[in-house]
C-alpha cells in the first residue's frame, strides 16, 4: 500500500490509523466543540503541521502541545468523552513522533503513547478502533524498547527492554526470540522514515542482525530485508544492497511455499536488484571496466525480464480476484448486508494497492472507494434510523469518499464525489439535531401533540440549538462545488446522450439537497423559538428570512433544469447561458432577481411556489410578496393525487358535448359532476387553505401567480372551489386574478424581455395582430373541423379593424405561413401585439409529448369561401426588404448591428438553431418553436386550442408549448389545460379580446371573460349556462400584466 502522510507529516502503513488523522474526521469532532475552543484547536493544529512541513520541530512541538491543552480544557464542558479522547489522540500522534525521533525525548514519547492507548482502549467498540489501538501499541513498544536500550545501567535498562519485547510478542503473537529483532527492524525503518537518518536506520539494522544471529533472514522477514536493501540503495551502498537482495532470492527459491505465494515479493525484489545492477554497471563503465559493466548490464536485463514475468502474473491474479470479490460484495449489498459488502471491497482495495496499479485496475480502485463510501454512508444512515448512531461509519465514509475524490480527473467524476460528500454531511446535519428533538416533532401536526412533552427540555437545549444553527457544515461547500461543476458541464456539453441526462438529474438533486439544508434550519429555528417562548424580535426575523430566502433560491435554481432538458445540450444562446450561470453562482444576483419580481407584476402581487421538496409526506410551499418577504408553509401530500387529477381532467374534457368519452378511460357512473365538485374543493383545501391568511389581504385585481410542482401542473387553479364562501366567491377566480409561471425567475426575465420589445415600435398598420383559425385539414381527414375558431378570427378582425389584422384562415393556416409571419417582425425590427392561433392541440403521443399544434395541410381545399386569402396572407414584397424597419425603429434605442432584440434573458428569448420546416409541413411541435433560430417579437401568443398547457412532466416542471414560446422570446402566453369545446371557447375569446381592447391586462381580461360566462344564466331554470369545463380551461402563463399597445385600445 502506498504510504500517505499524517497531519504530522509522518507516514503510517495502516489504513485504520488514517481515519484518526483524517482532516474530515477531525472536522466531524471539531463541530461538537464550543466555537472558541474548536477554532483554537484547529489553528494550533494547522500551525503545527505547517511547522513540520518546514522542518521547524520546536515550533511544531509547541503547537501540538497547545492542541493537547485545548483538549484538557474540554473537561469543564459537556463535550462527550469520546470526542475528547479522539482529539487527544489526533494531537498526540505527531507529538509522540517529534519527541521520539527528533528530540530523543523517549520517556515523554512513551508517556504520551501510553496515554493514547488508554484513550483508544475506552473507544474499542469496533474493529477499526481495535486496529488503531494495535498500531499505536506497536509504536509504544518500540519507543519503550529504545528507551530501555538507551537508559543508564543504574536505571536497570533490561526491565524496559524486556517489558517491551514481552508486550510486543503478545501483541503480535510472536515468540519472544522473534519479537526483539522485529522491534529493531521497526526502529530502523521508523528512524529512517521520520528523521531521514541513515545512520540510525543502519544502526538498528545491525542490531537486528546481531539479535537474530544465524536465523537471519527467514521467510517472516522479507519486508524488513527489503527495507534494509532500500536503505542501502538510498545511501548508494549498491554492493551491500545486491548481497541482501540476492540472499532474499536464494531464500525464497529454497522455500517450500508455492510460487504464487511469493510472486509479489519476488517481483519487488527483482525490481530493486535490476536497479542495483544498472547502477553498478554505470559505475563500472565510469571506472573504465567494460567487462564488468557488460556483466552487470546483462544481469540487469535478465532480472528485468523475470520482474516483468512476475508482474504480469500478479496482475492477472489480481484482476481475477478483484472481479470475484466485487461479485461477492454486490451479492452482500443486494441482501442489505453492507458490512460484509464493505469487507469484500476493502480486500479489493488491498489487492489493487499491493500491485503496480495497472491501468484497468485504476478504474476498479476508484469504484471501490466510491462504493465503500456509499456502503458506509448507508450503514451510518441505518444506525441513525435506529437511534444508535455509529460515528465510525461516518468517518469511514468520509475517508473513502475523500480517497475517491483524490483519484478523480474528469469534471463529472469530481462533481459526483462532491455530491456524495454533500449527501453524507446532509445525513450528519439531520443526525446532529436528534439529541434536541426528533424530526417528527419539528414538523407538521405532530408538533402540537409533542409541544408539552418537548417544552420542559427546550430551554436546556436552546444554546446547543443556537450553536448548531450558527455553524455552516461542509455540506454547503461540497454541494456548491458539485452544483457549479455540473452547471459548467451542462452549459458546455455538445452531445445529447445518457451522460448529459444523468448530469442534469444529479444537478437537480444537488439543488434539492441544498434547499433541504436551509429549510431544516428555518424549521428548527422557528420551532425552538416557539418552545422556548422567545419573542419574535428583529434578529429572529432576519435569521428566519435568511434561511427562507436561501431555500427559495435553491428551489428556483432547481427549476432551471427543465429548460435545459427541453433544449438539449449546447442549445442556449451565450447570453442565456451567462444569465443562468450568474443565477446559479451568485446569491446576491439571484436574490435581486427574485425579490423585485412581484413588484413588476403590479401592486399587491403574491407569488406561490409549490416546491418538489417533501418531508414527512408534506410539500413545501413558498410565498413571496411584493415587499420581497418570503414565507414558508407546508401542505399535506395528497393521496392518489395523480389519479384524482386525471379523473378531474378526463371529466372536464368529456364534459364537452363535441368530445364523447372513450369508455375505457373513465366510468361516468363512478365519477360525475358531484365528484368533480368534491375534488375541486379538496384541491382548494389542500393547496389554498394553508396560504389563506396571506390571500385574504389581497384585492381581486391583485395578481396571484402560481408555480406548480411536477405533480400539480394539471391543477385547474381558476376552478378551485371553497364551499364555505358565499355565492359569487366560491371559485378562486372569483376572488383573485390568477396566472401561472414556471418559476419566479422566468417572470423576471419576461419583464426584461418586454422592456426590450417596448423599445421597438408596435406596427400601426396591418400586421399588429396575426390571427390564425379554422385550419383546413382536408375533406378526408379524421381531424374534425374547428369552425368556431374561424369565427374567432373574424371577430378579432371586426374588433380591431381589417387594417390591423392579418388573417390566416383555412388552407393558409399552415406552419410555414405561421412561422413566416412570426419571423417577419424579427427581421424588420418591430413588435406584434398578439399572435392568435385557433387550432387543434395535441399532446398524447410520443411525437407530441411536449405539445404541438395540428395546422392546415399544404394544398388542402378550404371548407368554404375564403376570398383573396392568398393575397391577404402573403407578406407584402415592399416590406420584405426591411423598409418598414428603417422607417419605424427608434435608432437611439436599437443597436445599429440589428442585434438588439437578439438579447435574451435566461431562457426567455434564449432560442438557438436554424430549423426549417419546409412548405409541406402540417404540424408545429414544441421543439420546432424552440429550435426555429429566431426570436418572436410578439407581446402575447394566444393558443385557442386543446391541451396547450399540458406536456412532458419532468422532475422540475412541465415541458409544453408555453415553455417553448417563452424560449422563443414571447413574454405572455394564454393556453388551455384540457380539451376545450369549440363554441364556448369562441365566447370566452370574445370576452377576452373585448376586455383587452378596453385596456385590461391579459390576466385581468381573461378573468373578466370567465366571470361574464359564470354570470350567464338559463332563463328557464336560472342555472349557469356554461359549466366549469367551458369557462375555466385557460390560464395566462408568463407575465400577466401585458396590455395591448395604446393604438389598439379603445380611444
Automatic annotation (TrEMBL):
- Identify the InterPro entries for this entry: CHAT_dom, TPR-like_helical_dom_sf
- One family from Pfam that matches here is CHAT
Q: Where is the CHAT domain?
A: 678-1038
Q: Which PANTHER family match?
A: CHAT DOMAIN-CONTAINING PROTEIN, RAPSYN-RELATED
This protein's name: CHAT domain-containing protein
Q: Tell me the organism.
A: Sphagnum jensenii
Amino acid at each position: 500500500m502506498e504510504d500517505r502522510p499524517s497531519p504530522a507529516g509522518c507516514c503510517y502503513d495502516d489504513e485504520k490509523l488514517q481515519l484518526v488523522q483524517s482532516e474530515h474526521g477531525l472536522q466531524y469532532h471539531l463541530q461538537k466543540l464550543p466555537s472558541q475552543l474548536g477554532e483554537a484547536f484547529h489553528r494550533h493544529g494547522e500551525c503545527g503541521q505547517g511547522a513540520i512541513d518546514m522542518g521547524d520541530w520546536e515550533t511544531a512541538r509547541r503547537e501540538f502541545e497547545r492542541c493537547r491543552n485545548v483538549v484538557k480544557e474540554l473537561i469543564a464542558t459537556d463535550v462527550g468523552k469520546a470526542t475528547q479522547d479522539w482529539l487527544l489522540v489526533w494531537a498526540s500522534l505527531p507529538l509522540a513522533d517529534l519527541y521520539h525521533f527528533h528530540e530523543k525525548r523517549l520517556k515523554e514519547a512513551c508517556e504520551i503513547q501510553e496515554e493514547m492507548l488508554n484513550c483508544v482502549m475506552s473507544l474499542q467498540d469496533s474493529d477499526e478502533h481495535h486496529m488503531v489501538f494495535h498500531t499505536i501499541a506497536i509504536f509504544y513498544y518500540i519507543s519503550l524498547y529504545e528507551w530501555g536500550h538507551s537508559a543508564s545501567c543504574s536505571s536497570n535498562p533490561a526491565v524496559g527492554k524486556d517489558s517491551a519485547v514481552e508486550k510486543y510478542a503478545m501483541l503480535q503473537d510472536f515468540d519472544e526470540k522473534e519479537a526483539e529483532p522485529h522491534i529493531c527492524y521497526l526502529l530502523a525503518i521508523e528512524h529512517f522514515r521520520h528523521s531521514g537518518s541513515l545512520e540510525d536506520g543502519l544502526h538498528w539494522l545491525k542490531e537486528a542482525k546481531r539479535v537474530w544471529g544465524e536465523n537471519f533472514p527467514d521467510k517472516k522477514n522479507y519486508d524488513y530485508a527489503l527495507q534494509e536493501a532500500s536503505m542501502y540503495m538510498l545511501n548508494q551502498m549498491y554492493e551491500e544492497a545486491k548481497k541482501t537482495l540476492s540472499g532474499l532470492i536464494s531464500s525464497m527459491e529454497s522455500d517450500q511455499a508455492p510460487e504464487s505465494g511469493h510472486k509479489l515479493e519476488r517481483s519487488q525484489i527483482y525490481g530493486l536488484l535490476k536497479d542495483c545492477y544498472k547502477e553498478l554497471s554505470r559505475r563500472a563503465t565510469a571506472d573504465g571496466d567494460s567487462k564488468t559493466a557488460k556483466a552487470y548490464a546483462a544481469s540487469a536485463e535478465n532480472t528485468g525480464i523475470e520482474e516483468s514475468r512476475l508482474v504480469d502474473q500478479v496482475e492477472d491474479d489480481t484482476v481475477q480476484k478483484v472481479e470475484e470479490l466485487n461479485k461477492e460484495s454486490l451479492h452482500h449489498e443486494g441482501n442489505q448486508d453492507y458490512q460484509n459488502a464493505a469487507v469484500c471491497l476493502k480486500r479489493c482495495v488491498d489487492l489493487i494497492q499491493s500491485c503496480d496499479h495497472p491501468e484497468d485496475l485504476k478504474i476498479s480502485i476508484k469504484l471501490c472507494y466510491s462504493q465503500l463510501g456509499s456502503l458506509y454512508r448507508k450503514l451510518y444512515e441505518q444506525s441513525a434510523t435506529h437511534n444508535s448512531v455509529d460515528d465510525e461509519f461516518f468517518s469511514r465514509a468520509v475517508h473513502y469518499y475523500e480517497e475517491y475524490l483524490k483519484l478523480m480527473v474528469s469534471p463529472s467524476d469530481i462533481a459526483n464525489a462532491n455530491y456524495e460528500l454533500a449527501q453524507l454531511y446532509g445525513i450528519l446535519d439531520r443526525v446532529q439535531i436528534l439529541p434536541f428533538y426528533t424530526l417528527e416533532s419539528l414538523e407538521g401536526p405532530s408538533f402540537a401533540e409533542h409541544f408539552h412533552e418537548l417544552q420542559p427540555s427546550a430551554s436546556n437545549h436552546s444554546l446547543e440549538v443556537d450553536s448548531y444553527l450558527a455553524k455552516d457544515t461542509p455540506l454547503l461547500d461540497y454541494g456548491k462545488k458539485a452544483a457549479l461543476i455540473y452547471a459548467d458541464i451542462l452549459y458546455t456539453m455538445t452531445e445529447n446522450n445518457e451522460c448529459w441526462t444523468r448530469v442534469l438529474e444529479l444537478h437537480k438533486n444537488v439543488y434539492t439537497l441544498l434547499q433541504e439544508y436551509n429549510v431544516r434550519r428555518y424549521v428548527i429555528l422557528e420551532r425552538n423559538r416557539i418552545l422556548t417562548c422567545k419573542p419574535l424580535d428583529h434578529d429572529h426575523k432576519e435569521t428566519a428570512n435568511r434561511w427562507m430566502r436561501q431555500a427559495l433560491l435553491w428551489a428556483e435554481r432547481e427549476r432551471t433544469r427543465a429548460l435545459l432538458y427541453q433544449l438539449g445540450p449546447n442549445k442556449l444562446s451565450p447570453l442565456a447561458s451567462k444569465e443562468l450561470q450568474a443565477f446559479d453562482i451568485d446569491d446576491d444576483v439571484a436574490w435581486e432577481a427574485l425579490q423585485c419580481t412581484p413588484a413588476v407584476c403590479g401592486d399587491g402581487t403574491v407569488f406561490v411556489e409549490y416546491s418538489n421538496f417533501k418531508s414527512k409526506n408534506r410539500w413545501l410551499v413558498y410565498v413571496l410578496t411584493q415587499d420581497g418577504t418570503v414565507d414558508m408553509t407546508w401542505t399535506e401530500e395528497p393521496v392518489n393525487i395523480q389519479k384524482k387529477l386525471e379523473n378531474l381532467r378526463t371529466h372536464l374534457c368529456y364534459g364537452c358535448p363535441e368530445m364523447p368519452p372513450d369508455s375505457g378511460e373513465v366510468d361516468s357512473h363512478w365519477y360525475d359532476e358531484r365528484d368533480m365538485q368534491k375534488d375541486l374543493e379538496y384541491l382548494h383545501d389542500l393547496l389554498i387553505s394553508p396560504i389563506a391568511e396571506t390571500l385574504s389581504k389581497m384585492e381581486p385585481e391583485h395578481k396571484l401567480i402560481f408555480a406548480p410542482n411536477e405533480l400539480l401542473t394539471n391543477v385547474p387553479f381558476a376552478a378551485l372551489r371553497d364551499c364555505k364562501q358565499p355565492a359569487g366567491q366560491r371559485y378562486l377566480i372569483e376572488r383573485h386574478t390568477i396566472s401561472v409561471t414556471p418559476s419566479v425567475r422566468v417572470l423576471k426575465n419576461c419583464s426584461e424581455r418586454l422592456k426590450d420589445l417596448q423599445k421597438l415600435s408596435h406596427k400601426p398598420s396591418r400586421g399588429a395582430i396575426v390571427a390564425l383559425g379554422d385550419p383546413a385539414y382536408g375533406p378526408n381527414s379524421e381531424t374534425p373541423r374547428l369552425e368556431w375558431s374561424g369565427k374567432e378570427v373574424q371577430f378579432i378582425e371586426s374588433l380591431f379593424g381589417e387594417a390591423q389584422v392579418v388573417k390566416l384562415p383555412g388552407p393558409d393556416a399552415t406552419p410555414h405561413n405561421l412561422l413566416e409571419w412570426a419571423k417577419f417582425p424579427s427581421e424588420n425590427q418591430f413588435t406584434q401585439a398578439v399572435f392568435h392561433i385557433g387550432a387543434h392541440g395535441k399532446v398524447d403521443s410520443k411525437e407530441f409529448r411536449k405539445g404541438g399544434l395540428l395546422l392546415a395541410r399544404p394544398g388542402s381545399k378550404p371548407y368554404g369561401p375564403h376570398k383573396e386569402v392568398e393575397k391577404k396572407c402573403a407578406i407584402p414584397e415592399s416590406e420584405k426588404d426591411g423598409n418598414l424597419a428603417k422607417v419605424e425603429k427608434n435608432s437611439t434605442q436599437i443597436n445599429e448591428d440589428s442585434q438588439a432584440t437578439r438579447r435574451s434573458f435566461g431562457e426567455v428569448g434564449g432560442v438557438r438553431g436554424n430549423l426549417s420546416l419546409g412548405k409541406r409541413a402540417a404540424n408545429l411541435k414544441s421543439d420546432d418553436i424552440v429550435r426555429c433560430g429566431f426570436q418572436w417579437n410578439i407581446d402575447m401568443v394566444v393558443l385557442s386550442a386543446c391541451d396547450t398547457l399540458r406536456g412532458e412532466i419532468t422532475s422540475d416542471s412541465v415541458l409544453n408549448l408555453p415553455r417553448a414560446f417563452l424560449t422563443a422570446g414571447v413574454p405572455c402566453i394564454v393556453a388551455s389545460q384540457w380539451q376545450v369545446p369549440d363554441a364556448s371557447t369562441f365566447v370566452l375569446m370574445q370576452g377576452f379580446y373585448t376586455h383587452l381592447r378596453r385596456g385590461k391586462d391579459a390576466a385581468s381580461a381573461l378573468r373578466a371573460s370567465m366571470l361574464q360566462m359564470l354570470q350567464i344564466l338559463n332563463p328557464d331554470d336560472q342555472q349557469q349556462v356554461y359549466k366549469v369545463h367551458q369557462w375555466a380551461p385557460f390560464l395566462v402563463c408568463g407575465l400577466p400584466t401585458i396590455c395591448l399597445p395604446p393604438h389598439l385600445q379603445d380611444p
